[in-house]
Design brief:
This protein is an alpha/beta fold. It folds into 2 domains: 2-229 and 283-347 and 476-500, Rossmann fold (3-Layer(aba) Sandwich), CATH 3.40.50; 349-468, no CATH class. 46% of the residues lie in helices and 14% in strands. It has 18 helices and 13 strands. It has helices at 14-21, 44-57, 63-70, 92-109, 166-178, 183-187, 193-204, 218-223, 225-251, 298-305, 315-323, 327-330, 349-358, 369-376, 380-410, 415-443, 445-458, 481-488; strands at 2-4, 76-83, 114-121, 132-136, 142-146, 211-213, 264-271, 274-279, 291-293, 308-313, 337-340, 344-347, 496-500. A 5-stranded parallel β-sheet has the order 6-3-2-10-11. Strands 1-13-12 form a 3-stranded mixed β-sheet. Strands 8-7-9 form a 3-stranded antiparallel β-sheet. It is globular.
Length: 501
């Protein structure tokens, strides 16, 4: 199995890199990785009743056993979460869930009873987060999907959007036409995006018992009334701490993942199916059923409700968890450990055969197409042309140097025009080489097509596979593929992995 250090992946933020490789630099921003959180949960029985009801609705076969386990005072949980993208969204949703399951099993083996809990961000209204994804076709072509812009203008919580929404339906029809599986059709035949997401995730992870949480449930909001009261009482302290942390991030050259708008709190109120920002100075704690924490406040909300031992997140989440580190003591909540999810790229046999035949490593597919083609072209005429152009360039430089020296000894004012003429000659030689390359490229249509397909698999639309492709890109192998991947993940290797299928 091939691995790649995270610094060599495209677009990885430096705070995440320090978190993984230089934890001493960020130890003031996170609990220790082995931190065992102190938990006080007078509402445990009430919480378990709500989760039992929710998971029964989602047809979760593990509900009874996991709820019985969670009712015990000593039981903790490992949590991860994600916006409810169509068909579970990008691949990293599944990688987060598998990492959560693995970590919960580790705690169990250490003698700490633990339940894996997936937090569905059903109230998030940022449609950009679930706006686009892609499926690989059987021929490794790319089938991309994108929601229309008008959906982004609504502040409707995504979980309440029906699967019969016209824009959603257009995408689903195209997806179902491509997929041979019948299960996704059933999961998205009626109801909301929440129900479709939950049932799809349950089916994919059928070999792994987990609990799901829908935080939009009014019963959960009522349980959390003390949390909301504490938030409004301490809101100004929280905002002040966030401002200081953000300034510290800028000085340390760390990304500020989430910005607070002036005059607003990290809280929304649900009114008429819209998520309305709450203004500073407000106190709506007497209406907990209507409240919806923002992305920044959500971790504290879930850690108030649940006996969280660790949260599993990706690079962006881990960066914004550092932003809110100082919020935990203000809210009198012991912050759980933060752990990085597995990061991997799946390599189907056809792509592996191409890489091996051309002597390529998977990460080299991140290079630009022309760079790859140029490196792989095995065209004798192209080689001869390049060699001859190099010879001419070398001869030209030598001759021009001699000509310039003699001419300037006669008239020093000729220097500028001679340099201009030299640059023009060099440009024409480069232009000649480029034309020869493009001609060779046109004759190597097969190579260009092979590279395009490899990119569709490994770096689709100039994005990491896990951030764009959907798990149903490998639909013919589902759901049996999931436990196979679980067994192949190198859990102790904090690097990006390339997993052959």
């Amino acid at each position: 199995m091939k691995v790649l250090p995270f610094p060599r992946l495209p677009n990885i933020n430096n705070l995440f890199l320090d978190f993984l490789e230089n934890f001493k630099r960020v130890e003031d921003l996170y609990p220790a990785p082995d931190h065992i959180r102190t938990v006080q949960m007078p509402h445990r029985a009430e919480l378990c009743d709500v989760l039992a009801r929710q998971n029964d609705v989602f047809q979760n076969p593990s509900t009874q056993a996991l709820i019985a386990k969670l009712r015990r005072d000593e039981t903790r949980c490992v949590i991860t979460g994600q916006q409810i993208g169509l068909l579970t969204g990008p691949l990293y949703t599944i990688w987060k869930a598998l990492t959560m399951i693995h970590l919960a099993e580790q705690y169990d083996r250490q003698g700490i009873p633990c339940v894996p809990v997936f937090w569905m961000a059903t109230e998030d209204h940022n449609m950009h987060e679930i706006a686009s994804f892609a499926l690989l076709k059987e021929d490794l072509g790319l089938l991309a999907f994108s929601l229309k812009e008008h959906l982004f203008l609504r502040r409707q919580p995504t979980g309440t959007i029906g699967v019969d929404d016209p824009e959603i339906r257009k995408i689903l029809i195209r997806v179902f036409h491509e997929l041979k599986l019948t299960e996704p059709r059933q999961f998205y035949s009626a109801g909301t995006l929440t129900n479709g997401f939950a049932r799809t995730l349950m089916w994919l992870l059928k070999d792994f018992p987990i609990l799901l949480v829908d935080p939009s449930d009014p019963a959960l909001k009522r349980i959390a009334k003390p949390f909301f009261q504490g938030f409004f009482q301490r809101a100004e302290d929280l905002l002040g701490a966030l401002g200081r942390q953000n300034e510290d991030f800028k000085e340390r050259n760390y990304p500020v993942q989430v910005q607070m708008e002036d005059g607003r709190l990290p809280m929304f109120q649900i009114e008429n199916h819209e998520r309305i920002p709450v203004s500073r100075g407000s106190d709506l704690s007497d209406k907990p059923e209507t409240l919806s924490p923002s992305a920044l406040l959500r971790p504290l909300f879930q850690d108030f409700l649940l006996p969280t031992l660790a949260y599993v997140g990706g690079p962006a989440e881990i960066a914004y968890f550092a932003q809110i580190h100082d919020w935990y003591p203000i809210m009198e909540i012991d912050q759980p450990a933060v752990r990085a999810r597995a990061s991997l790229t799946l390599i189907p046999p056809a792509t592996r055969n191409f890489l091996n035949a051309r002597g390529l490593e998977p990460h080299e597919i991140y290079l630009e197409d022309d760079t790859l083609i140029d490196a792989l072209l095995d065209h004798e005429g192209m080689k001869q042309t390049r060699n001859e152009i190099r010879n001419v360039e070398n001869t030209l430089k030598t001759s021009l140097g001699s000509i310039q020296a003699r001419a300037m000894s006669i008239d020093p004012t000729l220097e500028k025009s001679l340099r201009t003429s030299a640059r023009k000659m060099e440009y024409q030689l480069q232009k000649m080489e480029r034309k020869a390359f493009l001609a060779a490229k046109r004759k190597n249509v097969l190579l260009a097509e092979q590279i395009r397909k490899a990119k569709n698999v490994i770096y689709p639309d100039e994005k990491l596979q896990e951030r764009y492709l959907n798990i149903f890109s490998f639909g013919s192998k589902l759901p049996e593929l999931i436990p196979q991947i679980y067994e192949k993940i190198q859990w102790d290797a904090q690097q990006h992995q390339y997993v052959d299928l």
